[in-house]
Amino acid sequence: MEDSPCHLQRLRCSVKNYDWGLPGRVSEVARLHALNSNTPFHADDPYAELWIGTHDSGPSFLASNGVSLKSWISENPDVLGDQVLRKWGSDLPFLFKVLSVGKALSIQAHPDKELARILHKLHPDLYKDGNHKPEMALAITNFEALCGFITLKELKGVLHSIPEIVELVGATNTNLVLQTNDEDDEEKVKPVLKAVFTDLMSADKERVTDAVNILKSRLLQENEVRQLTDKEQLVLRLEMQYPSDVGVIAAFFLNLVKLNPGEALFLGANEPHAYLSGECVECMATSDNVVRAGLTPKHRDVQTLCSMLTYKQVKDASRLLLDPFVQIFSLVEGSPEILHGVSLNQYVNKYTPPFEEFEIDRCILPQGERVVFPAVPGPSIFLVTGGEGNMNTGSPKGHVVTEGDVLFAAANTEISVTSASELHLYRTGVNSKVFQAS
Q1: Residue 399 annotated as part of some ligand binding site
Q2: What b-and-e string marks burial along 273-289, b requiring 16 or more CB atoms within 10 Å of the CB?
Q3: DSSP letter at 313?
Q4: Each residue of 389-418: pLDDT tens digit?
């Protein structure tokens, strides 16, 4: 059978040079974009995100003719498959990215669908989509993030040991936390946490500056006589990146999560988080809605962020995150989960978040081996990050692929991949559970 022109389409992708990106000489985003676009990168410029998809803020284009992927899909909606077309219309429901994080991203959250529609209607210049943005980050290198609130017990420890926070939130809030029972259900804890966090994030700029400076001086002194905790070391790092920023202190309220390559973190709507360092592939619903409140020079919307958060807390996170025998670390509802993926075969791991719009497959194919990605009822996008091989949909010749290549695969297309050298690739598509349920 000969390949239809719709089966596989090579894409040229967009790059974002946000100031938190890694310098071009060490950035995976810079390397992949240079290979993908046949344009050199600038060694000292920051390269933050490679965007792969149809979003207007960073569209992809067909390599063959320069037509945008969004326009091409609109003209060839059958490539999405009937179920995707019915559910989401003639557009991709997911957005795929590569991130190279050189310094912390903002403390942020993504609104749910209802809030996204409201924010987009009220402030279309700031919130450019009426869509939610659940997301998943799959680590390429060691990767650090802040996400979700620490437990009540841990928060009490923070208030006992970090006087600068007590100074900012005041005695009333502090006593409210300390007098709350650790065994109380989360509905009793949430308003307490919300009150303290909102007062912290809303604190006067001068008071925040004083508190951060005092905290920095104290930790540098204590570092002379004791080993600082991971969180304390992080706070000093954040202060160097964002001096006098309330986000430096807010980090004490959030869980510090460290991913190894091949581990993934997913984040639902209205959960606070900030990526800190490392490189990852990221997938999300097609949206660019972000509500920020710290560690950023961009617009801050503290009131919206503090009012929208779920204020759910991780319980016993340290034990679960460190258990090497658990393949999927299930934490309490609404909190981040760490996924190791499920092995589909000896070369491919699948990462399935609890969101309909997307999933990710990670494939490491040794030299001379072959793997088949079965036909699925929805579209897929393949990203090659290392090595060289051949991608075949049925024609005798197939398509030679190498690092930096990005290919769109139409629904109901079986993809056979062989490697000429060890091949590293990622596939993203609509969550398989959508098709299993129908």
Answers
A1: no
A2: bbbbbbbbbbbbbbbbb
A3: B
A4: 999 997 767 899 999 999 999 999 999 999
Which residues does 78 contact at the CB level (< 8 Å), separation at least 6? 6, 85, 410, 411
User: Residues 272, 193: contact at Cβ < 8 Å?
Assistant: no
Instruction: In whole angstroms, give the CA distance from residue 435 to residue 83.
Output: 8
424 labeled part of a ligand binding site: no
Residue 369 host element (H or E): none
- Tokens linked to 302: 């503290």
Confidence of residue 81 (pLDDT cuts 50, 70, 90): very high
Annotated catalytic residue, options 10, 117, 218, 292: 292
H helix runs in 38-142, sequence order = 69-75, 82-88, 113-122
Catalytic site includes residue 300: no
Which pair of structure tokens corresponds to residue 204?
Answer: 């006067």
Distance CA 382, CA 177 (A): 48
Total length of the chain: 438
SS (H, E, C) 193-221: HHHHHHHHHCCCHHHHHHHHHHHHHHHHH
Extract the tokens encoding 341.
């993926």
Question: Is 135 known as a binding-site position?
Answer: yes
